[in-house]
Amino acid sequence: MTENNSPIDIESVKQWNQSLRSATEAGMTVLVDFHAQWCGPCKVCTTAASGQYLLKIILVRCIRRLPPRFQQLALQNPHVRFLRVDVDAQKAIAEKYQVTAMPTFWVIKAGKPVDMLRGADLQGLVRLISQHGGPNPPVPPLPEDAEAAKVAGNAFYKDGNYTEAIEKYTAAISLAPNSGALYGNRSIAYLKSTPPNLDLALADAQKATEVEPKWGKGYVRLGEALQAQEEDEKAVKAFETAVELSQGLAKTEAKQKLEAVKKRLGWH
Protein backbone atom coordinates (compact mmCIF):
# COMPACT_ATOMS: atom_id res chain seq x y z
CA MET A 1 0.00 0.00 0.00
CA THR A 2 1.22 3.51 -0.73
CA GLU A 3 1.71 5.92 2.14
CA ASN A 4 -1.68 7.16 3.40
CA ASN A 5 -3.33 5.05 0.66
CA SER A 6 -3.09 7.88 -1.87
CA PRO A 7 -4.24 7.05 -5.43
CA ILE A 8 -1.57 5.60 -7.70
CA ASP A 9 -1.06 6.92 -11.23
CA ILE A 10 -0.36 3.93 -13.48
CA GLU A 11 2.56 4.57 -15.83
CA SER A 12 3.08 1.13 -17.39
CA VAL A 13 1.39 -2.22 -17.96
CA LYS A 14 3.98 -3.80 -15.66
CA GLN A 15 3.05 -1.42 -12.84
CA TRP A 16 -0.63 -2.15 -13.50
CA ASN A 17 -0.13 -5.92 -13.24
CA GLN A 18 1.98 -5.57 -10.11
CA SER A 19 -0.67 -3.34 -8.50
CA LEU A 20 -3.45 -5.85 -9.18
CA ARG A 21 -1.37 -8.78 -7.96
CA SER A 22 -0.36 -7.09 -4.70
CA ALA A 23 -3.94 -5.94 -4.03
CA THR A 24 -5.25 -9.45 -4.59
CA GLU A 25 -2.64 -10.89 -2.24
CA ALA A 26 -3.58 -8.32 0.42
CA GLY A 27 -7.33 -8.90 0.05
CA MET A 28 -7.90 -5.34 -1.21
CA THR A 29 -10.55 -4.18 -3.66
CA VAL A 30 -9.18 -2.07 -6.52
CA LEU A 31 -11.02 1.00 -7.80
CA VAL A 32 -9.71 2.31 -11.10
CA ASP A 33 -10.34 5.80 -12.46
CA PHE A 34 -9.95 5.76 -16.25
CA HIS A 35 -9.59 9.38 -17.29
CA ALA A 36 -8.15 11.67 -19.95
CA GLN A 37 -6.37 15.01 -19.67
CA TRP A 38 -8.78 16.59 -22.14
CA CYS A 39 -11.90 15.34 -20.34
CA GLY A 40 -13.80 18.12 -18.58
CA PRO A 41 -16.03 15.90 -16.38
CA CYS A 42 -12.95 13.98 -15.24
CA LYS A 43 -11.93 17.08 -13.30
CA VAL A 44 -14.61 17.08 -10.64
CA CYS A 45 -13.85 19.21 -7.59
CA THR A 46 -15.81 19.53 -4.38
CA THR A 47 -16.37 22.40 -1.99
CA ALA A 48 -17.89 22.27 1.46
CA ALA A 49 -21.04 24.26 2.21
CA SER A 50 -23.55 23.72 5.02
CA GLY A 51 -22.01 20.33 5.75
CA GLN A 52 -22.63 19.01 2.22
CA TYR A 53 -20.46 18.61 -0.86
CA LEU A 54 -21.36 20.67 -3.91
CA LEU A 55 -20.14 19.25 -7.20
CA LYS A 56 -18.56 21.57 -9.71
CA ILE A 57 -17.73 20.39 -13.20
CA ILE A 58 -14.58 22.20 -14.17
CA LEU A 59 -14.63 22.59 -17.94
CA VAL A 60 -11.11 23.94 -18.19
CA ARG A 61 -7.90 22.05 -18.67
CA CYS A 62 -6.09 21.35 -15.41
CA ILE A 63 -2.45 20.51 -14.87
CA ARG A 64 -2.13 16.80 -14.05
CA ARG A 65 -3.71 16.74 -10.61
CA LEU A 66 -5.91 14.30 -8.74
CA PRO A 67 -9.54 15.27 -8.23
CA PRO A 68 -9.70 16.17 -4.53
CA ARG A 69 -12.73 13.99 -3.84
CA PHE A 70 -11.09 10.88 -5.30
CA GLN A 71 -8.07 11.59 -3.11
CA GLN A 72 -10.32 12.00 -0.07
CA LEU A 73 -12.17 8.75 -0.77
CA ALA A 74 -8.84 6.94 -0.97
CA LEU A 75 -7.79 8.25 2.43
CA GLN A 76 -11.15 7.24 3.93
CA ASN A 77 -11.10 3.67 2.58
CA PRO A 78 -7.86 1.90 3.51
CA HIS A 79 -9.12 -1.48 2.28
CA VAL A 80 -9.50 -0.16 -1.27
CA ARG A 81 -6.57 0.47 -3.60
CA PHE A 82 -7.22 3.49 -5.81
CA LEU A 83 -5.57 3.53 -9.24
CA ARG A 84 -5.71 6.17 -11.97
CA VAL A 85 -5.17 5.31 -15.64
CA ASP A 86 -4.74 7.93 -18.37
CA VAL A 87 -6.45 6.27 -21.34
CA ASP A 88 -4.24 8.05 -23.88
CA ALA A 89 -1.01 7.07 -22.14
CA GLN A 90 -2.08 3.48 -21.33
CA LYS A 91 -4.13 2.48 -24.37
CA ALA A 92 -3.60 -1.27 -23.91
CA ILE A 93 -5.16 -1.21 -20.43
CA ALA A 94 -8.04 1.01 -21.55
CA GLU A 95 -8.74 -1.27 -24.51
CA LYS A 96 -8.78 -4.38 -22.32
CA TYR A 97 -11.49 -2.86 -20.15
CA GLN A 98 -13.38 -1.46 -23.15
CA VAL A 99 -13.23 2.11 -21.90
CA THR A 100 -15.00 4.35 -24.40
CA ALA A 101 -16.19 7.23 -22.21
CA MET A 102 -14.48 9.23 -19.50
CA PRO A 103 -14.41 9.10 -16.64
CA THR A 104 -15.06 5.38 -16.26
CA PHE A 105 -14.56 3.63 -12.93
CA TRP A 106 -13.94 -0.11 -12.68
CA VAL A 107 -14.05 -2.21 -9.51
CA ILE A 108 -11.66 -5.17 -9.52
CA LYS A 109 -11.61 -7.89 -6.86
CA ALA A 110 -9.15 -10.79 -6.84
CA GLY A 111 -7.99 -9.69 -10.27
CA LYS A 112 -11.48 -9.88 -11.77
CA PRO A 113 -13.63 -6.88 -12.85
CA VAL A 114 -16.92 -6.97 -10.94
CA ASP A 115 -18.61 -3.61 -11.44
CA MET A 116 -18.37 -0.39 -13.44
CA LEU A 117 -19.59 3.20 -13.35
CA ARG A 118 -19.48 5.76 -16.16
CA GLY A 119 -19.53 9.50 -15.63
CA ALA A 120 -18.58 11.95 -12.88
CA ASP A 121 -21.18 10.58 -10.47
CA LEU A 122 -19.93 11.17 -6.95
CA GLN A 123 -22.83 9.41 -5.23
CA GLY A 124 -22.47 6.45 -7.57
CA LEU A 125 -18.77 6.26 -6.79
CA VAL A 126 -19.49 6.23 -3.06
CA ARG A 127 -22.03 3.43 -3.61
CA LEU A 128 -19.45 1.37 -5.49
CA ILE A 129 -17.01 1.68 -2.61
CA SER A 130 -19.68 0.89 -0.04
CA GLN A 131 -20.78 -2.23 -1.92
CA HIS A 132 -17.41 -3.64 -2.88
CA GLY A 133 -14.93 -2.07 -0.47
CA GLY A 134 -14.04 -5.15 1.53
CA PRO A 135 -11.78 -6.11 3.16
CA ASN A 136 -11.77 -9.30 1.11
CA PRO A 137 -10.23 -12.68 1.89
CA PRO A 138 -6.61 -12.58 0.75
CA VAL A 139 -6.10 -14.54 -2.48
CA PRO A 140 -2.63 -15.86 -3.34
CA PRO A 141 -1.66 -14.48 -6.76
CA LEU A 142 -0.80 -16.81 -9.61
CA PRO A 143 2.89 -17.68 -9.93
CA GLU A 144 4.54 -15.33 -12.40
CA ASP A 145 4.96 -18.02 -15.07
CA ALA A 146 1.31 -19.02 -14.72
CA GLU A 147 0.22 -15.39 -14.96
CA ALA A 148 2.31 -14.93 -18.10
CA ALA A 149 0.77 -18.04 -19.68
CA LYS A 150 -2.72 -16.82 -18.78
CA VAL A 151 -2.09 -13.40 -20.32
CA ALA A 152 -0.80 -15.06 -23.49
CA GLY A 153 -3.84 -17.34 -23.53
CA ASN A 154 -6.16 -14.37 -23.17
CA ALA A 155 -4.47 -12.67 -26.12
CA PHE A 156 -4.90 -15.77 -28.30
CA TYR A 157 -8.53 -16.09 -27.18
CA LYS A 158 -9.27 -12.48 -28.04
CA ASP A 159 -7.87 -13.05 -31.54
CA GLY A 160 -9.98 -16.17 -32.02
CA ASN A 161 -6.99 -18.53 -31.84
CA TYR A 162 -8.67 -20.96 -29.47
CA THR A 163 -6.29 -23.90 -29.93
CA GLU A 164 -3.32 -21.73 -28.95
CA ALA A 165 -5.32 -20.24 -26.08
CA ILE A 166 -6.08 -23.73 -24.75
CA GLU A 167 -2.39 -24.61 -24.88
CA LYS A 168 -1.48 -21.53 -22.83
CA TYR A 169 -4.27 -22.09 -20.30
CA THR A 170 -3.15 -25.71 -19.95
CA ALA A 171 0.39 -24.55 -19.25
CA ALA A 172 -0.91 -22.10 -16.65
CA ILE A 173 -3.05 -24.78 -14.99
CA SER A 174 -0.03 -27.05 -14.67
CA LEU A 175 1.58 -24.30 -12.58
CA ALA A 176 -1.57 -23.20 -10.70
CA PRO A 177 -3.97 -26.16 -10.50
CA ASN A 178 -6.28 -24.48 -7.98
CA SER A 179 -7.23 -21.44 -10.05
CA GLY A 180 -10.90 -21.44 -10.99
CA ALA A 181 -10.33 -18.64 -13.48
CA LEU A 182 -7.89 -20.75 -15.50
CA TYR A 183 -10.31 -23.67 -15.74
CA GLY A 184 -13.11 -21.25 -16.61
CA ASN A 185 -11.02 -19.66 -19.35
CA ARG A 186 -10.09 -23.01 -20.84
CA SER A 187 -13.71 -24.16 -20.64
CA ILE A 188 -15.01 -21.31 -22.79
CA ALA A 189 -12.09 -21.76 -25.19
CA TYR A 190 -13.12 -25.40 -25.65
CA LEU A 191 -16.67 -24.23 -26.41
CA LYS A 192 -15.45 -21.71 -28.96
CA SER A 193 -13.17 -24.18 -30.74
CA THR A 194 -14.04 -25.66 -34.14
CA PRO A 195 -15.41 -28.20 -33.55
CA PRO A 196 -16.21 -27.48 -29.90
CA ASN A 197 -15.06 -30.02 -27.33
CA LEU A 198 -18.19 -30.16 -25.20
CA ASP A 199 -17.01 -32.83 -22.77
CA LEU A 200 -13.77 -31.06 -21.90
CA ALA A 201 -15.60 -27.73 -21.63
CA LEU A 202 -17.99 -29.24 -19.10
CA ALA A 203 -15.20 -30.95 -17.16
CA ASP A 204 -13.28 -27.68 -16.86
CA ALA A 205 -16.37 -25.72 -15.82
CA GLN A 206 -17.13 -28.28 -13.12
CA LYS A 207 -13.53 -28.10 -11.94
CA ALA A 208 -13.74 -24.30 -11.76
CA THR A 209 -16.69 -24.54 -9.35
CA GLU A 210 -14.90 -27.19 -7.29
CA VAL A 211 -11.70 -25.24 -6.72
CA GLU A 212 -13.49 -21.89 -6.21
CA PRO A 213 -17.04 -22.70 -5.04
CA LYS A 214 -17.82 -19.06 -4.16
CA TRP A 215 -16.81 -17.65 -7.56
CA GLY A 216 -19.95 -16.80 -9.51
CA LYS A 217 -18.26 -16.73 -12.91
CA GLY A 218 -17.40 -20.40 -12.55
CA TYR A 219 -21.11 -21.23 -12.44
CA VAL A 220 -21.69 -19.07 -15.51
CA ARG A 221 -19.13 -21.20 -17.33
CA LEU A 222 -20.85 -24.32 -15.99
CA GLY A 223 -24.22 -23.10 -17.23
CA GLU A 224 -22.78 -22.35 -20.67
CA ALA A 225 -21.22 -25.81 -20.90
CA LEU A 226 -24.47 -27.46 -19.82
CA GLN A 227 -26.44 -25.47 -22.38
CA ALA A 228 -24.04 -26.60 -25.09
CA GLN A 229 -24.92 -30.19 -24.13
CA GLU A 230 -28.65 -29.33 -24.17
CA GLU A 231 -28.89 -29.78 -20.40
CA ASP A 232 -30.96 -26.63 -20.01
CA GLU A 233 -32.62 -27.47 -16.69
CA LYS A 234 -29.23 -28.11 -15.10
CA ALA A 235 -28.00 -24.88 -16.70
CA VAL A 236 -30.79 -22.99 -14.93
CA LYS A 237 -29.49 -24.18 -11.56
CA ALA A 238 -25.94 -23.18 -12.47
CA PHE A 239 -26.99 -19.69 -13.55
CA GLU A 240 -29.15 -19.29 -10.43
CA THR A 241 -26.11 -20.06 -8.30
CA ALA A 242 -24.08 -17.57 -10.34
CA VAL A 243 -26.67 -14.86 -9.66
CA GLU A 244 -26.57 -15.58 -5.92
CA LEU A 245 -22.78 -15.40 -5.74
CA SER A 246 -22.13 -12.49 -8.10
CA GLN A 247 -22.23 -8.71 -7.80
CA GLY A 248 -22.47 -5.79 -10.19
CA LEU A 249 -21.92 -6.52 -13.87
CA ALA A 250 -21.21 -10.18 -13.20
CA LYS A 251 -24.64 -10.55 -11.56
CA THR A 252 -26.25 -8.76 -14.51
CA GLU A 253 -24.58 -11.13 -16.98
CA ALA A 254 -25.67 -14.17 -14.96
CA LYS A 255 -29.27 -12.88 -14.80
CA GLN A 256 -29.34 -12.36 -18.56
CA LYS A 257 -28.13 -15.89 -19.21
CA LEU A 258 -30.61 -17.27 -16.68
CA GLU A 259 -33.53 -15.48 -18.32
CA ALA A 260 -32.41 -16.62 -21.77
CA VAL A 261 -32.32 -20.30 -20.84
CA LYS A 262 -35.65 -20.05 -19.00
CA LYS A 263 -37.17 -18.50 -22.11
CA ARG A 264 -35.82 -21.34 -24.21
CA LEU A 265 -37.45 -23.80 -21.80
CA GLY A 266 -40.71 -21.89 -21.93
CA TRP A 267 -40.52 -21.02 -18.23
CA HIS A 268 -42.02 -17.74 -17.09
UniProtKB/TrEMBL annotation:
The keyword Lipid biosynthesis belongs to this UniProt entry's keyword annotation: no
Single GO term (MF): Hsp90 protein binding
SUPFAM superfamilies the UniProt entry points to: Thioredoxin-like, TPR-like
Top-level taxon of origin: Eukaryota
GO terms for biological process, alphabetical: response to stress
Intervals holding TPR repeats: 146-179, 216-249
Protein name per its UniProtKB record: Thioredoxin h
